What does this fold into?
Amino acid sequence: MSQTSFSTRERILGVAEALFARHGFAGASLRQVTATAKVNLAAVNYHFGSKDGLIEEVFRRRLDELNRERLAALTKAGDGKLEDVLDAFIRPALNQSLHSQGGAAFVRVLARAYAEHDERLRRFLSDNYGHVLREFAQVFARLLPHLDKDELYWRLDILAGAVTYAMADFGIIKRRASTSEEVHRRQAVDHLIGFAAAGLRAPPSPG
Amino acid sequence: MSQTSFSTRERILGVAEALFARHGFAGASLRQVTATAKVNLAAVNYHFGSKDGLIEEVFRRRLDELNRERLAALTKAGDGKLEDVLDAFIRPALNQSLHSQGGAAFVRVLARAYAEHDERLRRFLSDNYGHVLREFAQVFARLLPHLDKDELYWRLDILAGAVTYAMADFGIIKRRASTSEEVHRRQAVDHLIGFAAAGLRAPPSPG
DNA sequence: ATTCGTCTCAAACGATCGTTTGAATCATAG
DNA sequence: CTATGATTCAAACGATCGTTTGAGACGAAT
It folds into this structure.
């Protein structure tokens, strides 16, 4: 127990992350995962209990760090400009996808989880990480006093959609060969912040 | 042949649309589909050749009308305000989801298709309906002369993400029991238009 | 050297997948 | 009525799914 099999567990997690991102949770089989990771088929059930257990662990491994970074960035930018708070929300996702090998894949997995509308998974995300979103909502409410609660929630929902979609690289914009993936992602974040800031600052709708 | 089995074919399409929206293309089995539609299992292969054939037909059935409506609305709003063009792009999706029974499900299927990153499917969508997006891009370019081509494409990509996400009902906003689904969707469209218009009009980013 | 968890392995389990088959059923035209 | 093509049906196909099993390999502690 003191030195649990690091290599096998970690290889499974990394490969699963990539394959879930590409083919979805139902579309990627454990046989694909274990074959790609060059481990035995039974290793998944041994280390994670079940396929669902593996899926949960794929999330837990990254989300803990992501949300810790988000909260740290939020407290640092707490009373600053709207753009700073947006940055605190968006940039950690960018960092995730850069300084860890499978991070980009994970951001895609996260977006897919929202798309798959899996109630079990949504409950898991809401229970474990909902407080982060609530803290951001509070700060946004202070920075956007011209919006009532309904209006603010509508816009944050739209923002979440745009961020999720963009971060998951679903978009149609093709990165040029001349710009590195890192530069491309930084551009995406900058454009997202500018777009979202303007959208949030817009006057309340007549409705 | 003159009067091909309307009922069976159509029931399969409707049920498939709903189940694909809920469980994904890999997650919804033909046995689920045919059992729910109360038709024989073999009927899918008989009428559509294969599961992939069924998926393609689910798209074709709705996209033809959706894009026809979008183009009609675009020519009507061609030289109007930015909000009108956004309306022409967004509202037909809303209408799709209202005046046809499974329309709401289809919009979710469409969003999922983007999320699934299936190259075969993306090619199919791009080949058959890419010209619609190109026409909208031209109009946006005329209405937003302060943005260069790169900046405009970035923002349209963000817009597409927000629209896709919102229309697919992925968001966290729960509709109140007091407001009908139709009212809820209209509110979503109005908020989207306001948000997107402000985002598109924002000054160019310093980059 | 032996014991004891931890881990890996090949093999098999039953269930479910998409698809195919061939006969039964139906509607329609000759 | 009969012949013909279109459609439905129950049943089965082989493939693949997630999971379980029991034996063997490995390292550390006694």
Observations:
- Residues 1, 3-5, 8, 39-43, 46-47 of chain A lie near DNA strand C (CB under 10 Å from a C1').
- Chain A touches chain B through 48 residues (CB under 8 Å).
- Chain A is about 75% helix and 0% strand.
- The two ends of chain A are 60 Å apart (CA to CA).
